[in-house]
Every structure is written in C-alpha cells, then in structure tokens.
Design brief:
The protein is mostly beta strands and 56 residues long. It contains no helices and two strands.
Length: 56
C-alpha cells in the first residue's frame, strides 16, 4: 500500500504491507505486567518474506 492509501493513527512515509495478526492470548506481558488487549494498540513486527534451509 502506498502512503496515500493508508488510514492509520501513525504517519506512513513509505510503502507498507497490510497484514492480519492472530494472537495466542487476550493479554500481553509488558515490563513484567499483564496488560489486556484493547482497541487501538499498535503493533511492530519483523516479517520474514523468505526462508532458506542451510546447506550441509
């Protein structure tokens, strides 16, 4: 998606991918505390586009 095609709460200056995330629990751990999921939480992730097996 191009920056002018994105409606997000943060400014986007370069092309981005739209992804859907499924979490294993309804809470996360942040600084040792259990924090419930809520609308509007932002997520940052590294996405692996390709994976190769090592050659032995």
């Amino acid at each position: 998606m191009l920056p002018n095609e994105v409606d997000m709460p943060v400014a986007v200056q370069e092309p981005v991918y739209q992804v859907e995330v499924a979490l294993a629990a309804q809470h996360i751990r942040a600084y040792g505390n259990r924090v419930p999921q809520q609308s509007g939480i932002l997520l940052s992730a590294d996405i692996v586009l390709e994976q190769r097996s090592p050659i032995f």
